[in-house]
Amino acid sequence: MDRPRYDGEPDLDDGDEDVGTPEPFAGGKIRRKASRYREHRGDYLHVSTRPGLMKILEKQGDTSVRFADKVLKFTGSGKMKRRIFILTDFAIYLIDPETEAMTRRIGLAAVEKVCLSKLSDNFFAVIIPTEYDLLMASTRKTELVQVMVDVTKSASDYELEVLLSNRFEYNASASLVKEVSFEESEGGIKTSFKWK
Length: 196
Prior knowledge:
By secondary structure, the chain is mainly beta. It has helices at about 35, 50-60, 140-155; strands at about 65-75, 80-90, 90-95, 100-105, 115, 125, 135, 160-165, 165-175, 175-185, 190-195. The strands form 2 sheets. Strands 4-3-2-1-7-6-5-8 form an 8-stranded mixed sheet. A 3-stranded antiparallel sheet has the order 9-10-11, with no helix packed on it.
């Protein structure tokens, strides 16, 4: 029995090989099959219909939402916090989903690079040399990072660096550097953290 097909999905020769979809990040990242054919909407939270979120953006002079979704943010102490992640033409906003209060705003010009593993995990780090970095997890990580690259490139001549490595460092706080590493293990991907 044939599997269901979705609008815009390319024809596949044998069900495993993708013959027409360009791979993001020059094919250097392993992706889950479901992620290859997922429709990209950008704003998964319908920000324009949420007055509290729009008020935050308008106060900063931003109105053009390029990507919005829920993410998990990892604190310097290793705790996970739910956040709303909004990407506009100028900045990244992290917002507490319970209070709809902005917890952090990062100008895109301050972002040096984004780090991802080569494996099919949900983690990514946003490296900001002038501040502490962000380590987050998103089920829509590929789309989120690709939109960040596209927005940065269209706003300036600068192309945001995307580092693909199964081990990278990030500044978890002003005085704490952590190394995160990823490896394939039986049943999934093992993620480990080390203080530097």
